[in-house]
Amino acid sequence: MVSFSQLKDMFRLQREAKKVKKELRKIQVEAEAQGVKVVVSAEMEVVSIEIAPDVPHEKIASLLTDALNRALKKAQIVSSEKMQGVMGEMGFPTDKGMRGMAQ
User: Which of 46, 13, 8, 6 minimizes the C-alpha distance to 30?
Assistant: First the structure.
């Protein structure tokens, strides 16, 4: 059976997660690959794509893929760090803390 204290913690965690999600929408990261620039939010949504006029048509697909993948990886790192911060503040073990437990 779930205690009142556990319910309180779960509610607080849910509230903090919503707050972090809102913050992640505001954070933007970018990556560029030879004239193709991609901006994504830390919530993994594409914000903008810019392709310079001098980029060869036949290279656009591969450059776009490269820039998108790099931008999304950066966004994932930012998102993960934000969530670890919240989890750590609430006393939950973070990835860093879990690694220390294994040693």
Answer: 46
